[in-house]
């Protein structure tokens, strides 16, 4: 079931009409990141605004992305 959902999500992503620069991020992982153990830490930066944050979990990473995209949707200045 998970593989089917991933395939569906990949197909949707490939069909997307645009990838706006305002939604670009750079993610840098620390040396102790261990995907097999589901341990992720590092730094993420929003390219357009230069906002950045360190993260110690995938939840932290996702929260930063959600916050930045919410600000963009609300028309908040960078």
Question: Which helices and strands appear, and what pairs or packs with what?
Answer:
Layout: H1 2-15, E1 25-29, E2 42-46, E3 52-55, H2 58-73
In short:
This protein is of the alpha+beta class and 78 residues long. The chain has two helices and three strands, in the order H-E-E-E-H.
Structural features, described:
- Helices cover 38% and strands 18% of the residues.
- Strand 2 and strand 3 (52-55) form a beta hairpin.
- The model has no long low-confidence stretch (mean pLDDT 89).
- The chain is flat, with a radius of gyration of 15 Å.
- The chain has helices at 2-15, 58-73, and strands at residues 25-29, 42-46, 52-55.
- The longest helix has 16 residues, at 58-73.
- It has a 3-stranded antiparallel β-sheet with strand order 1-2-3, covered by helices on one side.
- It contains 2 helices and 3 strands.
- The chain is an alpha+beta fold and 78 residues long.
- The chain has one domain (21-78).
């Amino acid at each position: 079931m998970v593989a089917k959902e991933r395939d569906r999500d990949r197909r949707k992503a490939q069909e997307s009409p645009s990838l706006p620069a305002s939604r670009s991020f750079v993610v840098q992982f620390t040396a102790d990141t261990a995907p097999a153990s589901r341990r992720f830490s590092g730094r993420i930066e929003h390219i357009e605004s230069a906002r950045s944050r360190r993260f110690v979990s995938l939840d932290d990473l996702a929260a930063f992305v959600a916050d930045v995209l919410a600000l963009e949707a609300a028309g908040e200045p960078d």
